[in-house]
User: What shape does this take?
Amino acid sequence: MHGFVGNGDLEFKDIEKELIEPTDLRIFVIADAFAKGYTVDRIYELTKIDRWFLYKLKNIYDLKEELKKYDSVREIPLSSLKQAKVYGFSDFQIAKYVIKSVNDHIEEGLLDVRKFRIKNNIIPFIKQIDTLAAEYPAKTNYLYLTYSGSEHDLKCNDSNKSIIVLGSGAYRIGSSVEFDWCSVNALYAINKEGYRSVMINYNPETVSTDYDVCDRLYFDELSFERVLDIIDLEKPKGVIISVGGQIPNNLATRLHNQNINILGTSPISVDNAENRHKFSMLCDKLKIDQPRWKELTSVEEINEFVDQVGFPVLIRPSYVLSGAAMNIVSNRDEIEHFLNLAAKVSKQYPVVVSEFIQQAKEIEIDAVAKNGELVVYAISEHVEFAGVHSGDATMVFPAQKIYFETMRRIKRISKEIAEALNINGPFNIQFLAKDNDIKVIECNLRASRSFPFVSKVLKINFIEIATQIMIGNNVKKPNNSVFDLDYIGIKAPQFSFSRLSKADPVLGVDMSSTGEVGCIGENFYEAILKSMISVGYVIPKKNILLSTGPMRSKVELINSCRLLAENGYNLFATQGTAQFLEMNGIESTVLHWPDDDRKPNTLDYLKNKLIDLVINIPKDLTSSELSNDYIIRRSAVDYNIPLITNARLASAFLIAICKLKIKDIAIRSWDEY
Assistant: This one.
């Protein structure tokens, strides 16, 4: 989105319906209504939004119409250009309406606008947020930029004495406290080295948006234009983009093209890793295996690719976080819908379609390198098979169930990639492993959301080391003995499906979790039990409902089901699962599908709270399976019954509750490990 106006790809078929029924897009519907001749009074009748606000929006719309009359930024009266900036028009919007820049040339256009306004001294001013409601003079370095001022509230200090850190942006799924921890620890390291620390972030909820952790906090947008404005004012030694997640990372090339000193890994290397085509060429050069993929833009091209690799395939855009618009496509009917979705999310870059390898283990390495040489690293594995987004997966560190040879090859591949990209700072690589065959999924030249977790388990602050390297200081490699741990850490996701009416609580490649916990245990099962209890699961008292999905999931769960029976649990199962259990000598009670009139019925047992834990593994895409599985999962959430939808995670949890009791769990402080 580019503001109230300037969002050309939004279309609304029924404007009045959209105005009457509020959605997150209604502000843009109002802009479209003005374009179609709706009056403020008519919009008020439909929305009941106070006319005062509607007139302010109308002013913006009218100014946009005035700007469209000009064909060059140099034709605009300076008073109108200043007014446009006061009204919140970005250089992008002005370029779009005045220079008539199309997408391919919009960067050139907005930079032309920027150059012209700076030449005519139309620049923003630094203002302090008054945290004391004007009762006392505000002393805080809680800052923002505005075009409505005439002087700065603070003087900018000497150049080259500050370092700017770009934060993680809005607190939302995919970008939250993990990157915030990374940003804050980068600021602490900068402070320790005697530089002025400057943070740009617009998230009021988290730690980095706290003026106490840095010398200057700009509570402002992380846009290309605004970051350049602050850099012009602060004149820093450099900018750190690699600790705030994907939002600042996306600015790497654009800032580099403006000769901004990016501290750490070169933006050229960042682009070589983020651009799927360039990264694939690098992997081919290094003889590193990867899933087959292509950059595609049409349904016909995807169908040709599917003919080669078969279903399922993964469709995803480049330069995105949290799996946005990433989807596993299992049939030809879904292709067009998901292709359009991915193309909308990442308009500047092609859509990537790759083969999806089923029943593969996903492994990650979080690391810090200096001049392409590994300094510290942590290799973790996901409990779930690949297909669950890394932010939703249950992560185990150190990895417990991978071959020694797999570990050795992952380390070797990581060293080769770090050297080839000359990495200076943090990075994360995701791997697929199946039958000891290793493939690289992707490489991110930034901190990942698991950096805080592995730092705390290892008790080595990866971000502090990375920041020292990015500043240019020498760092010592830790002794190898620090990587030999006699305990295990598990990072488990926290979900909020109970607050999202009708949402299907099943995991996929698009991130859904709203939080996480990290737990440490003496062994895998103690750590998994601690982590599951910490995110809200309870040890079931007696009755467990099993709907175990496809045959591979049934096989995965057979040993844990046998353990449950041996430990006195009552097993209830849907028809297919009950038959499979019976074939393997395990007794269970059949509960019929929700859409079946026969008794006993799964829905009755869930409504009456007769079930203590639901294991429901999605099976296939037939309408009856989709409907019944969804009703079971949703009912479990709505009736506050613990639910697990992944066979490998379910197996680990079930074995843990059979092996351990609450009294067996050691409660220790972090320092005791």
Notes: The longest strand covers residues 373-385. The mean pLDDT is 88. Residues 51-67 form the longest helix (17 residues).
